[in-house]
Amino acid sequence: MEIAADRLAAIRERMARAAGDAGRRAESVTLLAVSKTRGAGEVREMAQAGVRDFGESYVREALDKQRELADLALCWHFIGPVQSNKTRDIARHFDWVHSVDREKVARRLDGQRPEELGLLNVCIQVNIDGESTKHGVAPEEAGPLARAIAQLPRLRLRGLMAIPRAGSPDGNRDAFRRLAMTLSGLRHTMPELDTLSMGMSDDFETAIAEGATIIRPGTALFGPRDNRQ
């Protein structure tokens, strides 16, 4: 528990410093702890230290953790690729989906979201660097997909998400800036969009400088991952 609290305090300090340097309030950035491959005990410790939002990529693993942690008031975010045969579980058991990149997936999530749960928050995943191995739409395709999602009654489109190319010499600043510009373009006709989900353990300060509203650290909070990553 003490290790979790110390790691969280270090992240919060880095967030506050980055936000201050960018002329922003620290409260304008949400910390989303990437808990994929982490045990329920680790998640519980981090929750007890003060984290509310957790990000998962594997549906079965996430559902097991959610059952074990049902006594905690947590906000669950799905951040991995969305498979069509997993949309029902995702729609029923998550509060956010950051990785919508197809209208078909959006329609399935919409149709399978129970009304009593309220609207499902979604972000469009943008393949900001055009990498063939990554999911996401090209930046120029974000607009048509956003307009399609905006018509779906059980979804609330919040903004954009991206996972930039690893090892960028500028710390992904250019990629983050291009994602922010893409969102800015969408907001001309969709001013309610308010979310930029970008930045992980090694680059979230740069992401905050470029406008991130949700950052997704994992290793910096939980320590090195095992081989399941």
Task: Provide structural commentary.
By secondary structure, the chain is α/β, with parallel strands linked by helices. It has one domain (2-222): TIM Barrel (Alpha-Beta Barrel), CATH 3.20.20. The protein contains nine helices and eight strands. It has an eight-stranded parallel beta sheet. α1 crosses α2 and α4 (87-93) crosses α5.
Topology:
Layout: H1 2-21, E1 30-34, H2 40-49, E2 53-56, H3 59-68, E3 75-78, H4 87-93, E4 96-100, H5 103-112, E5 120-125, H6 142-150, E6 155-161, H7 173-186, E7 195-197, H8 204-209, E8 214-215, H9 219-222
Parallel strand pairs: 1-2, 1-8, 2-3, 3-4, 4-5, 5-6, 6-7
Helix pairs in contact: 1-2, 4-5
Strand neighbour order, sheet with most strands? 7-6-5-4-3-2-1-8
The ordered string of helix (H) and strand (E) elements is HEHEHEHEHEHEHEHEH
Envelope shape: globular
Oligomer, anyone? single chain
How would a textbook summarize the main sheet? 8 strands, parallel
Which radius of gyration do the C-alpha atoms yield? 17 Å
List descriptors.
229 residues, alpha/beta, TIM Barrel, 8-stranded parallel β-sheet, 8 strands, 16% strand, globular
Q: In a nutshell, what does this entry contain?
A:
This protein is an alpha/beta fold.
